[in-house]
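SEVERITY: medium
COMPONENT: batch folding queue
REPORTER: lab tech (J.R.)

DESCRIPTION
The queue accepted two submissions in a row. Attaching both inputs and their returned structure tokens so the on-call engineer can compare them side by side.

ATTACHMENT 1
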Amino acid sequence: MRPPRPLPFVLLLMACGSAPPTAAPPADLDVPAAFTTAVAADATAALRDDWWTAFGDDDLSAIVARGLEHNHDLRAALARFEAAMAARGIAAGAAWPEVDGSLDAQRARRLFLGFPFGGGGVPSSTTTTFGLSLAVRWELDVWGRVRAGESAAIADVEAAAADVAAAQQSLAAQLCRTWFATIEATDQLALANATAATWRGTAEDVRDRYRRGVRPAFDVHVAATNLANAEAAVTARVEQLQRVRRQLEVLTGAYPRGEQTAPSRLPTALPPIPAALPGELLQRRPDLVAAERRLAAAGCRVDAARAALWPRLALTASGGTASEELDDLVDEDFHVWSIGANLLAPLFRGGALRADVARNEARLGEAVATYGSAMLRAFAEVEDVLATEQQLVARATHVAAAATHAQAAADLARERYQAGLADFLAVADSQRQAFLAGSARIALDRQRLENRVDLFLALGGGYRRAPAGGEP
């Protein structure tokens, strides 16, 4: 007789895991409505995704594009994101039935010892069996343990995606800073060469006057000392330029040969400061988004640990064929099947399950504190950059005036010395002051550019968070 077919089961429709909602900031953190440091911001200025293009330097844009494509640290961040995606797939798979198939073949020989059979030798029997089966097992996620695990994995994916965005923004900022440092080193080298050339001419002039008996030997030694210091400064600037060139090449994934060239002048126009509010950082800065998503994932893992305290209900089914002939595996007369359900309740685990709940609750508290700390650091970075902007604007006026007056004083001192109206110490001091003022002016120009880069980075660049609950 043909075995009865199994009755259809009404399966529960299980909702798949989804990303947990946005976690609220720590309750004890008072976020003001506006930043306390006020600067002249442009309300119409938008913080673009490619904010580095706002500097108007095509070479810089090409450097950043090359770094974003070839940097190895960024590739590592992308690999971590792919690993998080795979882990999400593993967690999602637990919500689906487990289906296993098997094909068995077995040949066995059995001895019949002690049976009063006639004839010589030991009586035996040899059999061959074949089996084809399909087994299904499905855990009904009654308490939401599997769904909570998948939601935590989705939050991990979103955190990893935010980490990639943070790595991209950080890399772009490093490339901009190193690019500006390369240009500054080029400017500083040009200034050092010009200063050495000036001292070379001055030393020759002093030696000529000494040979004619017009100036004492003291002036010759002072001029020679300053020339040697100027030439030493040239070698130091060459070493600095080679070092930042190699740093730039490493950031772009190239071998550090020190051959990367850069323009000889820093950009003079600074991009406008975009208007921003502290609350916007929670959605804009990828590092804050990553910390918030890890906080949400920690909350889901607490739910999963608590759900593990309850019994697990699973449905099982298997079916197939078994026969001594291989051809009979597809014959319905040899079908076998079974249907069942099991309830597994954790009765005694030595306190391990409740300890797991406590561990995940502690990790949730750690994630809350980490999120609050990250928020404070983010607010502090913006406030620091805005305050630095105020100081740099004031310093720029003074440094520019100092450089102008120092150069005028050096020219006047040289003219007075040649006319016999001033001693050589005034010439040496004025030329040294002119070099220092010119070097400080170049360094300040680079600092203002870097501070604008730091501001764009502190505000989160052009990052925008994906809609809540969407596919990461």
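ATTACHMENT 2
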Amino acid sequence: MKLIESSAEFISQEDGLQGIYKQIERAGRICYKSEDKITDNSAKEFVDKMISSGHLAMLEHGTVYLTFKDKWFPNDKNIFLAFRYKYESQPYNHIVRQTKMMTGDDGHNVYVTSNYRILFEHHCLEDMDEYLLKTFYHERRYAFKLVTSIGIVRELLRHRVFSFANESTRYCNYSKNKFDNELTFILPAWVDRNREPNNYGDDTFLEICSRAEFYYTDLIKQGYTAQQAREVLPLCTKSELIMTGFESDWKHFFDLRLFGKTGKPHPDMVILCEKIKNECIKNNIMTNIFNEQ
């Protein structure tokens, strides 16, 4: 049995099409904990596999920044309507229009922040060939790898405007060497972290975690599958999650889960949010959200 604290890591997406593929693969492989299969050339094959198997949710983690110049909008009603269908009508796109005065160049440019799933489902992946370009004007999407408890993951999943990739207890068999043949649990906020290792918190809490590990492993030995044995896992069991969203969505998330503008947040959620905040400050992203408080 292993006891750890929650953690957060900013996942930066590389520029270009390959960067989109890599971001999708990194998120998708969290689910089955198959990150060891990532190679320099595995990303495109992974994306194609997600598409062929119908697991399109993973494609959402690949953020696409498109820049359309004014000349792209000729006086053709059909093309204009096609643009509205592909981009403006989608609630998970963010569109910024800039006038000549704002941009300093010719025309009225349109900056679209989208994701790979939307482009795939609306048959406009070819737009990336010519218009894939990230600029100052695009609203940013940010992704974080979060290590927390199953209980806190349930609260995170309520923020449905985000894209999620979650470690699957159905397929991850924690009795295997891959997981060091043990279960990992998250230390709750109320546990005294100054005690010696393996002597944390309330004896009852530790006993429950220890028994959960014993019974989980015993069920596996008796022939249960991972999805069957997981029924004995407590809410404090460690779970990994990739969470991707627009900066505006992250601001709303922090308002609720860190600053408590609608009620007192769960103490473990506050700890996790503080770690996300530290990652933001470290990487100089979304710092305006915290400066406003």
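NOTES FROM REPORTER
Strands lie at 2-4, 7-11, 63-68, 94-98, 109-115, 141-149, 163-166, 184-186, 238-246.
No errors were logged for either attachment.
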